[in-house]
UniProtKB/TrEMBL annotation:
Belongs to the YkuD family. It comes from Bradyrhizobium zhanjiangense. Residues 197-271 form a coiled coil. It comes from the Bacteria. This is L,D-transpeptidase. Residues 59-168 form the L,D-TPase catalytic domain. Pathway: Cell wall biogenesis; peptidoglycan biosynthesis. The active site is at residues 131, 144. SUPFAM superfamilies: L,D-transpeptidase catalytic domain-like. Residues 1-39 form the signal peptide. PANTHER family: L,D-TRANSPEPTIDASE (PTHR30582), L,D-TRANSPEPTIDASE YCIB-RELATED (PTHR30582:SF2). NCBIfam families: PRK06132.1-2, PRK12472.1. Keywords: Cell shape, Cell wall biogenesis/degradation, Coiled coil, Peptidoglycan synthesis, Signal, Transferase.
Length: 518
């Protein structure tokens, strides 16, 4: 009844406005008639689904932009599936390789008028994330991946920092894969790894304590040695005054005219001589004592240097041993012809937000026929086997086939010796034509986007500030080992691409952001 009354009132109003009102009413009626037909053209939205088995820990999530769907996988296959809404035209969600880097149960946007983004799981620091949101049945976000509210809430406690997120322009699934270049851990190294990490941790604490004590001793000795010149100078001046007084007494005695004057001058001379002798003795003693103090300062300085060197060596070994207990991720870029390694230290970032990833390995890599495309392939260790690890591959950009791409890569032996013997499930090797995005920093695993796909979701987002990179000494004893570091790789992928005449041009947008649903 209310609707009919409202419609009648609107019709009367249109009549009062004359022909213009009638035309507007006709337009509304036409739109209402067309809307169902338009809705019918929208792709059928994927339904939420749960695998009919007990699910394990999720290893990766694959978002299909084409199908507007996300699927989560454990070691044995898919476990959860849901429809999504990715970035709309002009604000497209970037396709590429990411990982969860921060989680916030009740997140509110700092970009879009405090918009609610519940159960947010961030994958870039410039604002791309998975979170709960409205799903109209098509791509409608500002670059994030919206999931059903309930699905996002149920998923939130199951994921973890570092979980792989793959955003594919098309449908992609992990396929079982084997290749001699994939890490094969050594059983003996795996068995020894926990006890070795504990042993080296104790040694690192002892070495750190010894280095601190040696540093304090060297500082005290240096402080004492530093005071020697002033003390010697004071004694030397004291001796000079005593010698001057003695000379004056000698002159007074020589000039005395009476017996009384000579007696008085003789008494003054004896006192001056005694004073001069005492001053000379003190100066000689101080000079004799100064050299051992100088020698002690030099010796404690060298001891402190040796202790610091031992601390650095032991701490590095302890850090490597601790990292060996974590899954390892390797990124190989044809663009930079470099190999990068990341492992999560699980230490909170010192400037707030996320966790610190170890970045200490970055080396050149040999790629056969480097002018030919490799594609983008993500190889993931899914589970342990009697022989080592069971691997899968996900390809999101075809260049060369996954097997051929691996055949063309030669990983340096020293890198393999350092990370392969203790490789764990969830370890990965990513091969891509792309450089790492400039959004990759010490608080991320890897961020790499496909440059031949729309990336509008990056264009309106402010790039992350120059990264503060974790140093090699990331041990918790005696300093947290961080320093500000400008981007060290000159070939990182710029963050804000915009396609122009078939190529991407990079710039920071100055246009105001749309204030609406995110």
């Amino acid at each position: 009844m209310k609707n009919r009354s409202t419609t009648a009132q609107s019709t009367r109003a249109m009549r009062r406005r004359g022909p213009a009102g009638i035309i507007a009413l006709a337009a509304v009626a036409t739109f209402a008639a067309v809307a169902p037909a338009t809705a019918a053209k929208q792709p059928r939205q994927a339904a939420e689904a749960v695998a009919p088995r007990v699910a394990g820990e999720p290893i990766m999530a694959i978002v299909s932009i084409k199908s507007q769907q996300v699927t989560f996988y454990d070691a044995d296959g898919w476990i959860l599936r849901a429809p999504v809404s990715t970035g709309t035209t002009g604000r497209e969600t970037p396709a590429g390789v990411f990982a969860v880097i921060e989680k916030d149960k009740d997140h509110h946007s700092t970009m879009y008028d405090d918009a609610w983004m519940p159960n947010m799981q961030r994958i870039t620091w410039n604002g791309i994330a998975l979170h709960g949101g409205p799903l109209p049945g098509y791509a409608a976000s500002h670059g994030c991946v919206r999931m059903p509210f309930g699905f996002a809430e149920n998923l939130f406690e199951k994921t973890y920092i570092g979980m792989r997120v793959i955003i594919s322009p098309d449908d992609a699934v992990p396929t079982e894969f084997s290749h001699p270049s994939l890490f094969m851990p050594k059983r003996e190294a795996m068995a020894a790894a926990p006890s070795r990490a504990d042993k080296l941790s104790v040694e690192a604490e002892e070495a750190t304590r010894a280095a601190d004590e040696a540093k304090k001793a060297a500082s005290a000795a240096a402080k004492e040695a530093a005071s020697l010149p002033a003390a010697l100078r004071k004694l030397d001046q004291q001796k000079a005054r005593a010698d001057a007084e003695l000379a004056f007494a000698d002159k007074s005695l020589a000039n005395a005219k009476t017996d009384q004057a000579r007696a008085k001058a003789e008494e003054l001379k004896q006192k001056a001589a005694t004073k001069a002798a005492d001053a000379a003795t003190q100066l000689d003693a101080a000079k004799a004592a100064a050299q051992p103090k100088r020698d002690a300062a030099a010796a404690t300085k060298e001891a402190a240097k040796a202790a610091a060197t031992r601390k650095a060596d032991v701490v590095k070994a302890a850090t490597d041993a601790k990292l060996a207990l974590e899954p390892v991720s390797v990124y190989i870029s044809r663009a930079t012809q470099k190999l990068y390694v990341r492992r999560n230290t699980h230490k909170p970032a010192p400037d707030g937000g996320g966790e610190v990833f170890d970045t200490s390995i970055e080396v050149p890599v040999t790629i056969r026929n480097p002018d030919l495309p490799l594609g983008t392939h993500i190889f993931t260790a899914m589970a342990k086997t009697d022989m080592g690890l069971r691997w899968s591959v996900v390809t999101i950009e075809n260049g060369d086939g996954a097997r051929n791409a691996l055949d063309r890569i030669t990983i340096p032996q020293e890198v393999l010796d350092r990370i392969a013997p203790t490789a764990l499930p969830r370890s990965s090797i990513i091969i891509s034509d792309e450089p790492l995005s400039s959004e990759t920093n010490y608080r991320t695993e890897f961020v790499a986007v496909l440059s031949n796909q729309p990336q509008g979701g990056f264009i309106t987002r402010k790039p992350t500030a120059p990264a503060m990179i974790a140093s090699d000494d990331g041990w918790d004893n005696g300093g947290n080992g961080f320093f500000f570091f400008q981007q060290r790789d000159p070939y990182v992928q710029p963050v804000n691409p915009r396609r122009q005449r078939g190529q991407y041009q990079y710039y920071q947008s100055t246009q105001p952001m749309q204030r609406n649903w995110w």
